[in-house]
Amino acid sequence: MRITITGAAGMLGRDLAAVLSSSPQQHQLHLIDIQECDITGRGQVRACLEAARPQLVIHAAAYTNVDGAESDAESALRVNAEGARNVALAAAEIGARLIYISTDYVFDGCRDRPYVEDDRPNPLNVYGRSKWLGECAAGEHPDSLVVRTAWLYGRHGRHFPGAILEQARQGGPLRVVNDQTGCPTWTRDLAQGLAGLLGGGRGTLHLAGGGSCTWYGFALAVLEEVGKREPLPPVAVEPMSTAELGRAAPRPRYSVLESNRLAELGLAPLPHWRDALGRFFSE
Ligand SMILES: NC(=O)c1ccc[n+]([C@@H]2O[C@H](COP(=O)([O-])OP(=O)(O)OC[C@H]3O[C@@H](n4cnc5c(N)ncnc54)[C@H](OP(=O)(O)O)[C@@H]3O)[C@@H](O)[C@H]2O)c1
After folding, report:
1. Which end of the chain is less packed: N or C, by CB atoms within 10 Å?
2. Active site residues
3. pTM of the model
4. Cβ-count burial of 87 within 10 angstroms (0-12 exposed, 13-18 middle, 19+ buried)?
5. CB of 257 closer than 6 A to ligand 1?
6. Domain at 118, CATH number
7. Distance 178 CA to ligand 1 centre (A)
């Protein structure tokens, strides 16, 4: 299959390209990032997709600085809303199917039970709003699938396990937020899940690591996993509140994603986040 991946130089994009290029189905990959095609330019996106003529576009490019978006809403909206619209329109024009990667931050987190695909988005921050608008743009494409995922980490980017490890190696102490709960997701597991969706599927799908934890629980698990493989200095890890951390963007208190649609699409759930973390550090 001819597949275009936007955001191909990003954390998810790189794992996605690696997983799809090692598939026995021998896909023809067209990998683009901002250097090759700035998605905020409608004409540029159209020309790029018209030249490559993919059968499927996986749109993973995004403005992903959640706190930065609060003071630069214009950029976040230009990339995540307008950019997604440009990609969706161009994909529709050439008859390519679209998979749009979205986020748990479209939800407000006021629930105490996991969010399923039909739950109503109500984003708390600018990034979440911009991604929700992107979802709406993708939804106008007649053959599109919105895949919501969460709390990504991977080999090719800055991520939470890496930040925790860096602080621990310096001897800490660490203070980590314990009042946000979500689903840590290894980009390689997500990429493998996405590889199972190439054949079809429309609407919205939740695809994130199994189980859930707080950032504090995630940090403890990172230290436990790394501690099995290298000696770390003894380090104090204290729980703290979101309010104490004082980040610019409000975050959902509880944004666990669950899926009612995986079985219908013939897809197995992604592995449990704890299992994924062990594999991430052992490989
Ligand atoms: N990271 C998470 O925890 C998380 C959670 C849920 C959902 N998601 C979603 O998952 C997807 C992948 O996330 P990620 O963490 O892999 O993001 P990432 O590492 O930031 O990758 C996104 C890529 O998009 C590129 N990009 C930015 N603006 C662009 C533009 N105008 N035109 C073309 N490309 C542009 C970025 O380039 P620059 O680096 O040069 O800006 C970057 O290479 C995104 O849609 C994100 O919203 C992420």
Report:
1. C
2. 127
3. 0.97
4. buried
5. no
6. 3.40.50.720
7. 26
